[in-house]
Amino acid sequence: MSKLKIGIIGVGHMGQYHVNVAVSIPQIQVSGIYDKDQQRVKEISNKFLVPSYEDMDQLIYDSDALVIAVPTKYHYEVAKKCLEAGKHILVEKPMTQTVDQAKELVELAEKKGLILQVGHVERFNGAILEVKKIIEKPFFIETKRLAPFNPRITDVGVVLDLMIHDLDIILNLIPSKIKSIHARGLKVYSEHEDIANTLIQFESGTIANLIASRVTQNKIRLLTITQEKSYVVLDFATQDIDIYRMASSAYLMTKEEIKYKQESFVEKIFVHKDNPLKLEHLHFINCILGNEEPLVPNTKDVLTLTYAYQILEDIKKNIN
After folding, report:
1. What residues does 38 pair with on adjacent strands?
2. pLDDT of amino acid 247
3. What angle separates helix 164-173 from helix 298-318, to the nearest 10 degrees?
4. Among 21-25, 33-37, 64-68, 257-261, the least confident range
5. Of 26, 50, 60, 249, which has the maximum CB count within 10 A?
6. pLDDT of amino acid 190
7. Is 3.40.50.720 the CATH classification of the domain at 4-119?
8. In the chain, domain spans
9. CATH code 3.30.360.10 for 124-273+306-318
């Protein structure tokens, strides 16, 4: 079977990871790479031994599908050009700068019968695939996605940079409509929000608290779920899942003090650990080949973006 020719547009911080993964997949032939920074193109081309292009249109023509990892403000323009040329696309998140642009791209892809996949890489984290089997009727979900400041990202704030991952995950975990959203944010080093906290209440009663920061001097990526008979802790970095179940609790009283004693069982869930970005690429090509159905429909991609911008609107009203 001939290999799919995949071109990669944008080889900056995220783009280089896409190249690294693509060259390791036997079903893919990297048709080439393009970036406005031609010095960067030469550097990545030499490092991974892939063809370099000076003309983006020519790369699109020479490819069966494209990975788009340019800055967010160019997503719509580049994605539309690829779709109009009849090419499947994997575009990094957030899909576009506006919801209307996202809807237009989805409609265009459907009209032409093309795969449009958004780069929500955490969907392919082995721990997330397992936690879907564990979750029942959660009372409370909390996410923490904290990282040090990185000056490379200047066109979006922490909501579209980091929090959107957790928003997407929660929307796909909770089969209920959102009742209310309240968000607050803080500018620290950039013109956008660098810290954000969002409280979401679903019609089912579930409450979700999302915390995101890109000014924290430690990298933390956690998801915790409180439900009737268990407390689930998922660490995205290690892809580990621990389930805590309370065995007993009691107060111990002495002459000096009263102590609370709690005993719990901790169940560790086996997670098949693989590179989520590699799994994202494999899913993309399998959808193109007709071997798999998209993990998430594009309507969900648009919904995630819609709520992300709703969060941003609430933050803008109250940002410091």
Report:
1. none
2. 59
3. 130
4. 257-261
5. 60
6. 87
7. yes
8. 4-119, 124-273+306-318
9. yes
Q: What is the DSSP letter of 152?
A: T
* 129-145 tens-digit pLDDT: 899 988 989 999 999 99
75: confidence class by pLDDT, cuts 50, 70, 90:
very high
Which tokens hold the place of 190?
């950039």
Assess whether pLDDT exceeds 60 at residue 112.
yes
- The whole-number pLDDT of residue 136 equals 87
The conformation of residue 2, written as its DSSP 8-state character, comes to: P
Q: What is the DSSP string of the chain?
A: -PPEEEEEE--SHHHHHHHHHHTT-TTEEEEEEE-S-HHHHHHHHHHHT--B-S-HHHHHHT-SEEEE-S-GGGHHHHHHHHHHTT-EEEEESS--SSHHHHHHHHHHHHHHT--EEEE-GGGG-HHHHHHHHH--S-SEEEEEEE----TT--SS-HIIIIIHHHHHHHHHH--S-EEEEEEEEE-SSSSS-SEEEEEEEETTS-EEEEEEESS-SS-EEEEEEEETTEEEEEETTTTEEEEEEEEEEEEEE-SS-EEEEEEEEEEEEP-----HHHHHHHHHHHHHHTSS--SS-HHHHHHHHHHHHHHHHHHHHH--
More confident site: 251 or 113: 113
Average pLDDT of span 75-102: 97
- Sheet with 88-92, edge to edge strand ranges: 28-34, 4-9, 65-68, 88-92, 116-119
Rounded-to-integer distance, Cα 255 and Cα 5, Å: 76
Read off the tokens for 166: 């957790």
Please tell me which residue, 126 or 102, carries the higher pLDDT value.
Answer: 102
pLDDT at 288: 97
* Cα-trace Rg, the chain: 22
Q: What are phi and psi of 49, to 5 degrees?
A: 55, 50
- Give the β-pairing of 220-227 and 178-186: unpaired
